[in-house]
């Protein structure tokens, strides 16, 4: 079984991006800039934002974090986003989720310029991805896709099962696999006989948020299994896949942690640079 090392793959991507940023600076005398808006003091959000900032600085991006208390009013946040949309020094805008209940996530996402939407959540980018057009792709599915392609170059005709139907992971992951001519089944926690669906798959992407849902006897021999889940349990952080069981059957498998997570951040940096290229053509 191949352990898919997300840390290693992400490090290779960051190294390439570092060279790309250096070249952009040389040619344009500018560097792409990522601005993150962080609202409130949720510990996981603060950790994620710090990790993003560290990675951005590592590859040479301009990094800015705008912090607001969770009491900030919605209009102030939307006004700030509108201001950033007009700021040419900002290539990418990210509003860290989740948001306080009094702030409408749809309004926030819809206010970000589609050309600076590094998360790929704006309806414009979602629509383009669904239609098969050029789009900014959400970071986690993009990271999963790059890991799959690393170990299976030709996906045409492969049977893929995506577990999870969220707008953040499941749906965009499905679109990426369809674009590669996979036969994709999108499933979820309410799917009847999920085990039988998984046993047909050459590729499984588990992103449903149920600890160790996918068992060893759910996976056919020599399949590729990507585990997006991050679940806190009594025995620590586990994914949506029962790692010890599935590792005995699968051809390749991502660990949790150290699999998809590092790739998500690497793809955020990649998206930021791509946004800069679009803005400056």
Fold and architecture overview:
This protein folds into 2 domains: 29-113, Rossmann fold; 139-261, Rossmann fold (3-Layer(aba) Sandwich), CATH 3.40.50. It contains 10 helices and 11 strands. The protein has helices at 6-28, 43-59, 74-85, 105-111, 123-131, 139-151, 170-179, 194-199, 243-246, 260-280, and strands spanning 2-3, 33-39, 62-68, 92-95, 159-163, 183-187, 203-206, 224-227, 231-233, 236-238, 252-253. Strand 5, helix 7 and strand 6 (183-187) form a beta-alpha-beta unit. Helix 2 crosses helix 10 (260-280). The mean pLDDT is 96.
CATH level-four homologous superfamily name of the largest domain: NAD(P)-binding Rossmann-like Domain
**CATH class membership of the largest domain:** Alpha Beta
Mean pLDDT: 96
Largest sheet: 6 strands, parallel
Kindly provide the radius of gyration, computed on alpha-carbon positions and rounded to a whole number of angstroms. 19 Å
User: Residue ranges: pLDDT <50 for 5 or more in a row?
Assistant: none
Shape: globular
Overall SS class: alpha/beta
Label the CATH architecture of the largest domain. Answer: 3-Layer(aba) Sandwich
Number of helices: 10
Proportion of beta-strand residues: 15-25%
Give the domain tally: 2
Q: Numbering strands along the chain, what is their spatial order in the largest sheet?
A: 1-11-8-7-5-6
| Count of extended strands | 11
Q: In which range does the helix fraction lie? A: 40-55%
